[in-house]
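Weekly structure sync - notes
Attendees: PM, LS, DV (DV joined late)
Agenda: review two folding runs queued last week.

Item 1: First target. Sequence and structure tokens pasted below for the record.
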Amino acid sequence: MPIPILSVLSGLHKSSFLDRDVTPGVAYVYRVRSLLRIGQEVIPGEISSTVSVTARDNTPPEAPTSVRAVAISGGAKIFWIGAKDTDVAGYRVYRRKKDEVFQQVGVVKAPYTFFEDMTAVAGTAYWYVVSSYDTAEPANESAKSQEAFLRP
């Protein structure tokens, strides 16, 4: 397949180029040629060696919203409004007790937006947060949601 030629004459004084029209997972091939302008004449230099790069998705999805936790028989049920991004693969649920750090307690595949924590002990106060992750390899994880508090 022929390689399209991209001419950036307006950028004659630049030594870099940012290609914003790429698709994650697709390999792109680039070569560079310098141009020397003398008056109205443009003199081309040698063409560089080929450089190949594969575009990567580094953008995490948005965080889930409206996280709620309710006590149920034998544990807790956590539910939320899912991220609206089109490449959300699932959600990670984290829990902590007072003065502790969050630990992951569950993973839920999209499109589901609830999790039953059957390891929650009745009478214990818990805080929960949820993050979303996408289909990229490796997956990008969103920021954590606002905390939901489960009263003892």
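Item 2: Second target, run right after the first with the same settings.
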Amino acid sequence: MRMETDEKLRRLLLQADEDFTLVKDSYQDNSKYLISTCKSLIITEFPGTRYLASDAPEDSAAAAEFWTLCCSDRQFELAIALRHQVQEAGSIYPYWLYGYSSVVTHSRMARQEELTPLARASPIFKQAFTATVVSLVSGHSKREVLHIYYQHWRDGDVPEHGPLVLELLYSFVQAVKGRVITHCQAGRGRTGSAIAYFMLRDLPTARARDVVRWLRSIRAHMVSTYEQYRFVRYAFKKFLNASQEESPEELQAAMAAIDQRPVNIIVVLQAVISQPNGSQERKEYKLSLSSKPWIRRRAFLKRAIREAESRFGLRVDVSRSHPLRVGIQGEKAVLIQLHATKVNSV
């Protein structure tokens, strides 16, 4: 039996996806803007901007090329790493401390005066970021590069500490005059989200979908999930609403206050229910959950599944369940496909 979604929800889904589906993805990097010669490292520069995107240096050759590029005459001053300390702990991290590259002579923690006013005032920066000054030597070139490492951003998701993370990163972008290189794991989802936000802040009259479309025309899959795209748009609009605040403390307070305004999210669960006789029944359930305006996919899915199990008497097989869509605009509808068994009658 085919599940039918009511007409109102169908319209919501179509409206919600409109912007993101208009962002065309070439599925292939534009070789004209690739500047890496290392097989294990793909570095892309975005013409007319200060921004470059890279995947993570995962071996000594890639780390050497990464730092050699930063020490080149391209005038790099800032490197940004967006990772997750648990999810990606197996990679050679932090690679700037372990001598993987002969280019790195030494590194030290950044001093307070080398941080931005917003970073110095932010409790989030103190608990979730690492700021390191890396000294580089390559041939006759010597350079110090500030390396900002945010440790709580899962692949395909949004930062655990919300929109202020992007504004903290941008405060460092504003503080330097040179070029900025950003990477995550593949250098596309989290990296694309950060660079898209930087460009929107540089060009406040630009539209998010136009910026993301342009980034993707150069490096495929920049801003890789709907949640990331929605988060970048929300963070940018949120900053504009709070930007009249003058001091870093006032700015953080204004942004936090906006975050505390809950939105009601309709969760539509399309479940495949396994019966005792081996047959399967398709059934639709609806939940209403309160959430922040921005959604962390992993945490929200866990919460929705727990609520469904409790309210509808289900036991969800997480390994076979496939979330189709999270974080719809408009009335905030969410569509999730679950595989489950019924454990009691409700």
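Discussion on item 2: Residues 22 and 160 are 27 Å apart (CA to CA).
Action: LS to circulate a short write-up before next sync.
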